[in-house]
Write a structure and sequence with these properties.
Elements (H helix, E strand, L loop, with lengths): L1 E9 L5 E10 L4 E5 L6 H8 L7 E6 L2 E2 L5 H8 L2 E4 L10 H11 L4 H14 L15 H14 L4 E5 L7 H16 L3 E5 L3 H7 L2 E6 L2 E5 L1 H4 L2
Parallel strand pairs: 3-8, 3-9, 6-7, 7-8
Antiparallel strand pairs: 1-2, 1-4, 4-5, 9-10
Helix pairs in contact: 3-4, 3-5, 4-5
Bound molecules: adenosine-5'-triphosphate.
The site of adenosine-5'-triphosphate has 12 residues, from helix 1.
GO molecular function: ATP binding
Protein name: ABC transporter ATP-binding protein
Organism: Pyrodictium abyssi
């Protein structure tokens, strides 16, 4: 589980984006992160992923303060968390290479990485694309490849930034089901989205990011 406590953040060039934001991302549930453009949803998720260090406040992962943990421990904690950007960066090579990439850098041998990458691709209905070059894919296909790459490493916490944005109706529904199943199997899933309808369908709880703060509430309170 990840806990952000009274987190403050601003970029070099601007005002405070987060001014005392707190939230929890728990295993076994889907958390919807909603709020207006520029409110700080992406920033918050990158802090939860251990990519950005807050200027004030605490980030706890499984009870350990992430940024004061020794390097090796911090790396181990961060590896349980995967963040998928709205505009994913794909490596050169095939779709299979891309989905297997996270596993390869975690030290799995080629065969095992391939087997797990194929499984993840099947889950998202993109197994027919495995031999295609990643550079020729549509935006929606790229998004699914990035999500498959994340699923393949079996993270304890999965953070997705606008995962539905470029997907057609059928793929949105498929992803919705996959995320629900992931949570039911114990993964903690957080989804930043502008689509409150999808958020309400998939999430157990919601967080509204606004004015630098994060307000946690029920689906009824924040989404409907
Ligand atoms: N790399 C950066 N450098 C400077 N400012 C940034 C940077 N990234 C984000 N910001 C600013 O921080 C604020 C929060 O941005 P963030 O992307 O976290 O919001 P968001 O809620 O995810 O927005 P959206 O819904 O539009 O995706 C915005 O004002 C944005 O302009």
């Amino acid at each position: 589980m990840i806990r952000l406590e009274d987190v403050w953040y601003r970029y070099d060039s601007g005002d405070w984006v987060l001014r005392g934001a707190s939230l929890e991302i728990r295993e076994g549930e889907v958390l919807a992160i909603v709020g207006p453009n520029g409110a700080g949803k992406t920033t918050l998720m990158k802090i939860a992923a251990g990519i950005y260090r807050p200027l004030r406040g605490r980030v706890e992962a499984w009870g350990r303060e992430l940024w004061t943990a020794p390097g090796a421990e911090r790396l181990a904690l961060r590896r349980r968390i995967v963040y998928v950007h709205e505009k994913p960066i794909l490596i050169r090579g095939t779709v299979l290479d891309n989905i297997a990439y996270g596993l390869r850098i975690r030290g799995l041998d080629r065969e095992e990485a391939q087997r797990r990458a194929e499984e993840a691709a099947k889950l998202l209905g993109i197994d027919m694309l495995l031999d295609r070059r990643a550079s020729g894919l549509s935006r929606g296909q790229q998004q699914l490849v990035a999500i498959a790459r994340a699923l393949a490493v079996e993270p304890r916490i999965l953070l997705l930034d606008e995962p539905f944005a470029h997907l057609d109706r059928e793929k949105r529904r498929l992803l919705l089901n996959v995320l629900r199943k992931q949570a039911d199997n114990g993964t903690g899933v957080a989804v930043a989205t502008h689509d409150t309808y999808l958020a309400a369908r998939v999430a157990n709880r919601a967080v509204l990011v606004e004015n630098g703060r994060a307000e946690t509430g029920s689906i009824d309170e924040l989404l409907l």
